[in-house]
Amino acid sequence: MPRVLTVQAESWPLHTPFVIARGAKTEARVVTATITDGARVGRGECVPYARYGETVEDVAAALEAQADAVAGGLTRHDLLAAMPAGAARNALDAALWDLACKQSGRRAWELAGVAAPGVRITAETVGIDTPEAMGAAAKAIADRPLLKVKLDAHDVVARVDAVRHGAPRARLIVDANEAWSADLLADLAPHLAELGVEMIEQPLPAGQDDALDIYDSPIPLCADESGHGVDDLSALAGRYDLINIKLDKTGGLTAALALADAAKAAGLGLMVGCMVGTSLAMAPATLLAPRARYVDLDGPVWLAEDRPHPLRFTAGRMSEPDPGLWG
Asked: Is residue 246 annotated as a catalytic residue, yes or no?
């Protein structure tokens, strides 16, 4: 029986608004790809991201356009040439991985030849709010080993100081989501270092990375929006210390595994991150967790309700995927 692809757009409400420098969201809008061979089913989820010009409707249409190719035997390797990197390719790549696992009876990490994810510490996020509210939010999750603090260009030190007081024993990383200038970074970094911040993610707007050529940061810097795939690495090496690999940027696990190898060869440390989605979107990314200095896959923590057989989050520690979920 030919393989059949179905595509569905879904909305998953959040229990609390998720606020970053670019705005707030109250729901996770995702697109799922499902492939069946008549006996087994593979699934993948992506999160279209407006920052990269993606809409739910366009991503769903791009996936539906691959129905004939899927029926004709499209492979994960074929997919790299058939679709551009981005959310749509990620969902289809994940569904092909999942189907291969169901067909072979093997877990995804066995097929990939990488270590099992196991239980991993993941960052949990404190969204942008007043310093007082962010301190209270940090206090509520102060037992988590690693907190990620979302920031814009305002009240940065006061907000991080409030988080530090709310969670005095937690490790802290911060994410500016492109909101700072080079001068602001130079001004803030020493203060953040005093507060124990151990990494700054994407401080400058993508495309302005050359400002880092003459800057020696006291805190390691991680590229996110500036780094999507292997072709970006030459512009990152020497400017950043790490790259945040997100499957919705790379266009799936297949490309992400290749990027992880290339980033290591370029001397860059790894972070594995996510958009806000369900456990189905996080599951393929867990294969990168054993190699990552920072794991940031807490998207499902923000959901009012997750999928069946979800990843389990316990005091900042994340389980590996259940086979009933993916892979």
From this structure: yes
